[in-house]
Amino acid sequence: MNYEKTAAALEEEISALKTELIKKETALLKLKKQSANFSSEITTVSNDEISKYRFILENTSEEFFLLSSNGRILLVNNSASESIGYSQIEIQGEHISVLNPDMVSDNFSKLFTELKDKKTISREIFHIAKN
User: Of 100, 106, 95, 101, which Cα lies nearest the Cα of 68?
Assistant: First the structure.
């Protein structure tokens, strides 16, 4: 009798595991479909187009700062570099708080969240030049 109860308990456990596996496989298939949809929405940009945009960005009189989601400076254009007194290479990788002490991680996270929600924001931000 002990043996039969153990076998029955094992069969019940196997059945529960199969059910759980089916649920997880279903969820995985859903994620794969979402991923495929997302991938098909991504458009390809040619190197020529990238070069044109980079040229415009580098040569505009407006200061441009490209920041990561955690506030690290990824890229600045010539106007921004001249204004802050740092070379593009010097400032790359620094946190934005180097230029604006008010932009500590918490403040930047809130600003970045607002940008993600609204898709566009406008702020007048003061920065400290190197020199």
Answer: 95
Cα 72 off chain centre by: 12
For tokens 């029955």, the residue is 8
Task: Copy the structure tokens of residue 36.
Answer: 């495929």
pLDDT of residue 3: 61
CB neighbour list of residue 74: distance below 8 Å, 6 or more residues apart: 66, 67, 68, 92
Q: Which residues of the chain have pLDDT under 70?
A: 1-5, 36-45
Q: Which two tokens stand for residue 38?
A: 């997302």
Residues with Cβ within 8 Å of 60's Cβ and at least 6 positions away in sequence, in order, are 77, 79
pTM above 0.70, yes or no: no
